[in-house]
C-alpha cells in the first residue's frame, strides 16, 4: 500500500504534512507499522504525529514507547490525538511523560479526591495533613508548580477518558474528577495565598482566619468541563479577630487564590475563579462570615440566588466551616419554590437557554439554544426545585444523578429518563472532546471538516475501528438536540396529563399537589384551575382526548411562555370545546407546529384575540398559513357586504352580517399583527378599511330603511376625520366623522335636510344598537361627529351649500386644522369630490396670519392643561402627554397650515407621510422628523397593545409590571424586557417634546 493510501486509511487530513513528519529524523529507525498502528488509534492523527515528533525531539527516550506494541502505546497516541494543548504541556514539561507508562483500562477508576488534594498541596510544599496548610513557596515559582501538577492530573484523566470502553458511561466520572482536580488546585492556591499573606499580616492572624471555598455551578455539582470558569463563594471564620480585620485578611486570601490560579506567569493560567455568584454579586464584599451570609439570605436575596445554591458544595479550605454553610443554606434552596418571584426567576432561567447567542453561533451551539445542555439542566433543576421540597431523594447536585432520582421517584417516566440521560451524556461528551483539544473554553461545534472528522472519531469507543464522516456526526448531534426538546415537553408535562386523565400507566404519574406545584413553577397562577382544564381536555377514550393528551405537553409549554398562561389555557379549552371533533382543527394542531404555537401565543398574550377566537373558533383555521392572514382590502370587503345585503334585504339581518364581517376582519388583522406580518402603518390602514366598509354598509341599510316608503331625496357622504381620516386608527378607536348631503334634483332643501337627518341617526344606531341574539365580543364602532361645524351645538348633518356658507362666514382656525385629516369615507362619489374641492382652500390656505398661529398654540396649551385626566402622569400619557401623539400631530398640522398651499407634497391626511414631506422640504431636519415618527409610532403601538392585551382602551403607558410586560411583548420586546420599553418610550417622548417645543412654540 502506498504511503498516501496508508495516511488516508489512518485518518490523516493533510497528506503532504503527514509525509513530511513521518520522514522526520526523530522517527528514523522506528518500525513504521508500529507507528501507523498507534496513529490509527488517534482521533486526530495529524496532531498526534506532529506532537509526537516534537516530544521525541525534546525527550528522545520516548522513541521506545512510540514504537511499542499498540496495547502499550495506546495511551500516548490517544491523548496526543485528542489534545494539542496537552501535547504542548508535555513539550514544556517532558518530566510528566511517565503519565503514559500505564496500561490502558477499559473500565478506569476515578481518582481519589484526597489523593489529588495531597498531590497538589505537595507540589507547593504544603503539608496535606495540616488543618490549614501553608505553602513552602510563593510567587511565580509556586504558581508554575501548582499549574504543572494540575495539568499532570488532567493528562492522567485524559488517558483514562480516551481509553474508557464506553465514553458515555465514564463521562460523569470525568466531570467529577475535573471538579476534584479544581478543588485540589484551589486548596493548593489557598496554601500559597496563606504564605503570601504572611508577608503583609502576622502569621498568627493569617492562621486565625478560617476560609471555606464553596464551589458553585458545575464545580459544585462535580460535573466540571475540561476548561471552565470555576464559580465560588468565600466564607470566613474570624476566630478571635474582629470581623473587619478578618474580612481584610480573608479578602487577601481570596485574591491570592485567583492570583495563583490565573495570573500571568511562566506556566499559563488554568481558568478563571469567578466569585460573582456571591451575595450582592460584583458589588458585594469578596468574603463574608457565615453569619453575614445568613443575614443576607434571610433579608435580601432574590429567588435566583437560592436556586444557584442548589449546586453549592465545599471544595477547599475549612471543611467544618463549609459544612456549616451547606447546612445553613439547604433549607433555603428547597423552600425557594414557594417564594415570591420564583416564577419570574424560572422564566429567566428559561430565557438563559436561548438568549445572548450571536447569530453566527446559533447553529453551532452545544450548550445554549433549543436542545442544548442548558435545556437539559433547566428541566432537571426546575423539577428538583418544584418537588425537592417534599422529597429529599431529589436533592442531588449532579445532573445524571438527579435524572435517576427523578425517575426513581416517579416524577419522570423510566423510558424518558433513560433517553434524557443519554442525550445529556452525549452532549457533554461532545463538549468535553471539543474543549480537550486546545483546552479552550468553547461550546461550539467546529466548522472545519478535519476537526469534525476528528470529533466524530473521538466520541466513539476505543474498540471501534470506524472513522465516521462529518455528516454522520452532525446528523447524530441534530437528532440529539431534537430529542432533548421533545423530551423536555414529555418529561415536564406528560406526568401532569397522566394524573389529570387518571390513566393507568407504567409511566410517571404525580400526586395532585405535585402536579399543581409543577404548573405553578411555570407561571400558572391558578394551578388547580389549570388542572381542571387539563382534565376536561384529556378525559375519556375519544380520539379527541387521545390527541389532546399527545399534543398538550408542547401546548402547555407554549402557553406558559405567554404573559397569562391561565387565561390562555382556559381560552384553548373553550376553543377546543367549540370546535369539538372538527377534523381540520385536530389535524392542524397535530400537523402544523407553527399554527399550534401561534394559537398558544395569541391565547396567552391577548385577551382581545382570545375573546374573539372563542366566539368565532372557525377563524383558528387561518393560523395554518400566512396567506389567510392577509387583511382583506376595502374593495373585497365591500363586495362581500354587497352580496350579503342582496341575499338578506332585512335591515337587521343585513346589519348583523355587516358587523360580523367587521368583527372577523378585526380578528384577522390582530392575528396577522401578532404574527409580525403587519407593521403599525399597515395595521392602521387595514382597520380603517374595515371601518369604512362597515360604515358604507350601514349607510346603504339606513338609506334603504328611510326610503322604504318614499324616494331617496338627497345624496349622502360620511367624511372621516382625525386618526380615522389619516387611516391611523388602533384597535380601540372610535370613528370621528362629519356628515354631508346634497339634495337630489326635484326636492327642496328642507325635504333633503329632513331625510338626511333621519339617515344619519339610523347610521349611528345601526352600528351600535344591541342585536338579538347579541354579537359576542364585538368592539362596537362608535360614530363621533363632534368635529362638525359649531361642534356639539351644530347640526348633525349639513348640506354642501351650508358647509360652504359656514366656512365662508364663520369658520375658525381650529376647524381648518381639523379639516386637514378629512377624507371621504362612504357615500356619493361626486359629492365627495365636490366636498374636497370646497375644503382644500380652507385647510391649505394661501397664507396664515400670525394671530391664527398664536391661536393654534393657545388652543394646544389649553388642551394640555384642561384635557389631561386629573392625576395622570404627563410623561406616561400616550395621547396628551409630553412628546405624545398630540404633540406630533399638532406640529405636523401647523406646518401643513403654513406651507401646504405652496407645497402639494404636504397635502396628506397621514401624519407620517406629512413628516417625511416636511423633512424633504427642510421644514424639519431629517433627524427630527425621524425622531418624531418613531415616538408617534411607538405611542400608537402601545395604545393598540393596551387594547390587545386587556380588551380595554387606555391612553396610558402601563405602570403595573404584568401589564407593561404584556404590552412590551406586543411591541416586539423580548420576554422580561418590559423596563426596556418603558425606558425607550420615556426617552423618545422626552426628546420628541424637545423637538416639538422648538418647532411649534419657537423655543
SSE layout and pairing:
Elements: H1 3-10, H2 15-22, H3 32-39, H4 45-58, H5 62-66, H6 70-82, H7 84-92, H8 113-123, H9 139-163, H10 167-197, H11 203-208, E1 210-215, H12 217-220, E2 230-237, H13 243-262, E3 273-274, E4 287-289, H14 290-299, H15 303-308, E5 313-317, H16 319-334, H17 342-354, H18 373-387, H19 399-408, H20 414-438, H21 449-458, H22 470-501, H23 512-521, H24 527-538, H25 543-560, H26 565-579, H27 583-591, H28 593-605, H29 607-615, H30 634-647, H31 651-674, H32 680-706, E6 714-720, H33 722-725, E7 735-743, H34 749-768, E8 783-784, E9 797-799, H35 800-809, H36 813-819, E10 823-827, H37 829-843, H38 850-867, H39 885-899, H40 911-920, H41 926-950, H42 961-970, H43 978-1001
Parallel strand pairs: 2-3, 2-4, 7-8, 7-9
Antiparallel strand pairs: 1-2, 1-5, 6-7, 6-10
Helix pairs in contact: 2-4, 3-6, 4-6, 4-7, 6-9, 8-9, 8-10, 9-10, 10-13, 10-20, 17-18, 18-19, 18-22, 18-23, 19-20, 20-22, 21-22, 22-23, 22-24, 22-25, 23-24, 24-26, 25-28, 26-28, 26-29, 29-31, 30-31, 30-32, 31-32, 32-34, 35-37, 36-37, 39-40, 39-43, 40-41, 41-42, 41-43, 42-43
Task: Write out key terms for the chains shown.
1003 residues, mainly alpha, five-stranded mixed β-sheet, 5% strand, elongated
Count every beta strand, where a strand is a DSSP E run of 2 or more residues: 10
* Helicity level: 55-70%
The largest pleated sheet is described as: 5 strands, mixed
Termini gap: 90 Å
Residue ranges: pLDDT <50 for 5 or more in a row?
none
Radius of gyration: 37 Å
What is the helix tally? 43
Label the structural class.
mainly alpha
Q: Which strand-content bin applies to the residues?
A: under 5%
Shape: elongated
For the residues shown, what is the average pLDDT? 93
